[in-house]
């Protein structure tokens, strides 16, 4: 159990990639380039019930475990405690996103209450993994390479979030840019987790 908690951040980073791929196998003609990851669990999706079971619920638990690990094992370092709390928030919001599906049509003009909750929770997920690496950047506790890497991940996340906005408005390939934007956040988590547990 201790090993699971210690390596939960690394496990989550790998799990999310595998989980999205596996869930997509149950969604005929699902397009990773044109569709959002959340569309796997959207209302009416062939994988609506399955996707949260594969992705959101176990991932949320892994994020929360890693946040707990950080808080307990770095209790003397306030910045790391805050990062741990942010990782826990990310995990809780991952659960919320799984419990409240988005609408089948991401371009709908009148989103449902569930979709609004999903969207706001997704926003908190985004912010939590922007603030966390930003704390690393400004904390002399962490080595310079990790601080520079954290900066690069934030820049990458913002760049592809901007490209996502353009692709969404043009109705082209928002899925590509969503995955790259969030991918930088997950890459940061993977490297950060590796650095703090080894």
TrEMBL record:
Entry keyword set: Membrane, Transmembrane, Transmembrane helix
Residues passing through the membrane, by range: 6-27, 53-72, 78-100, 120-138, 144-162
Record flagged with keyword Ubl conjugation: no
Keyword RNA-binding in record: no
Protein name, per record: DUF998 domain-containing protein
Biological source species: Marinomonas gallaica
Lineage, broadest ranks: Bacteria, Pseudomonadati, Pseudomonadota, Gammaproteobacteria, Oceanospirillales
């Amino acid at each position: 159990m201790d090993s699971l908690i210690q390596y939960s951040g690394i496990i989550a980073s790998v799990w999310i990639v595998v989980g999205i791929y596996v869930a997509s196998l149950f969604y005929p003609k699902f397009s990773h380039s044109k569709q959002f990851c959340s569309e796997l669990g959207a209302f009416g999706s062939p994988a609506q019930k399955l996707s949260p079971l594969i992705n959101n619920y176990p991932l949320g638990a892994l994020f929360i475990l890693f946040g707990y690990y950080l808080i307990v094992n770095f209790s003397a370092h306030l910045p790391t405690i805050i990062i741990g709390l942010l990782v826990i928030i990310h995990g809780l919001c991952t659960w919320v996103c799984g419990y409240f599906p988005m609408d089948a049509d991401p371009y709908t003009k009148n989103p449902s209450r569930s979709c609004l909750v999903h969207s706001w929770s997704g926003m908190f997920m985004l912010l939590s993994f922007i603030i966390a690496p930003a704390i690393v950047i400004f904390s002399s506790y962490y080595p310079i390479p990790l601080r520079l890497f954290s900066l690069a991940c934030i820049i990458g996340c913002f760049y592809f979030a901007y490209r996502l906005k353009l692709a969404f408005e043009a109705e082209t390939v928002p899925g590509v840019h969503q995955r790259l934007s969030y991918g930088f956040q997950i890459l940061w988590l993977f490297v950060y987790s590796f650095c703090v547990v080894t």
